[in-house]
Amino acid sequence: xxxxxxxxxxxxxxxxxxxxxxxxxxxxxxxxxxxxxxxxxxxxxxxxxxxxxxxxxxxxxxxxxxxxxxxxxxxxxxxxxxxxxxxxxxxxxxxxxxxxxxxxxxxxxxxxxxxxxxxxxxxxxxxxxxxxxxxxxxxxxxxxxxxxxxxxxxxxxxxxxxxxxxxxxxxxxxxxxxxxxxxxxxxxxxxxxxxxxxxxxxxxxxxxxxxxxxxxxxxxxxxxxxxxxxxxxxxxxxxxxxxxxxxxxxxxxxxxxxxxxxxxxxxxxxxxxxxxxxxxxxxxxxxxxxxxxxxxxxxxxxxxxxxxxxxxxxxxxxxxxxxxxxxxxxxxxxxxxxxxxxxxxxxxxxx
Length: 351
Known about the structure:
Blueprint: H1 15-20, H2 49-56, E1 62-69, E2 72-78, E3 87-89, H3 94-107, H4 139-143, H5 153-158, H6 162-168, H7 183-197, H8 201-208, E4 219-220, E5 234-237, H9 238-249, H10 263-269, E6 274-275, E7 282-283, E8 288-292, E9 295-302, E10 306-311, E11 316-322, H11 333-350
Antiparallel strand pairs: 1-2, 1-11, 3-5, 4-5, 6-7, 7-8, 8-9, 9-10, 10-11
Helix pairs in contact: 2-11, 3-7
């Protein structure tokens, strides 16, 4: 029997297992609104970073927290038998990594840009009589969840060919319209990256992020056609996810000054393009945008509470990983993580 500590190491997960658990591991944003506006406000009860992180132990799903400011690590702590070096399923936080890879692909001239239509890139998987709106979907609309396509995660992974199923599914909105959060959008991006890059998405990630010290994807599940799941089922350690956050915090550069992700892409990723209908948070290119603790925060969010927070004004990066088998929005856990960040912000700002 797998223990709590070794469960995350069981990736890659089989497609059958994914299908059977689809309702429990659906996309992060539509979990449910909580309406808890106070959740992201600082409690004011903690006076030191150590005290704040000690309080984190009261959250049973929490596995690890890392805090760094301007490249200096301020704290690192594991909870409930986990360590920051243990692998975990970062779920939809991986969407931000896919976004970074799209930015790199554009910089390498493998893609034309965010306004490039996706239909010619996925021509072999288009339905026989495609909806005319498919021709209007762009790379940028997949990144901002404004493609209009929105099959549920469960329906998609139950299909024989996820890319073809998504392209043949009914539109929920017109392209460029309201945000429709769906892993199908980032899975199409993974398929596109595989095609234009000539390698599986995981291998591209290994090649492109090789200069980033501490960054490593442990494993990444694939669909039946061998395409790595764009935006889900990616195994990383808390430290690895934090290394990615630090890369973005530095404008896409490594600590040694190597430009891995174009600085302009980091900035455009954080421009608000739409708004979540569930949380009210802004959304850029696979990054959520929200004011927490009086600061503008950009964050990646995965099911269960896989959080990568970047607070640009404070040069602050905070990574939190959690158990990945239960929701984080519907039960208020996400708001408690936001509150934990708000307290961290208050202490760092006062220092």
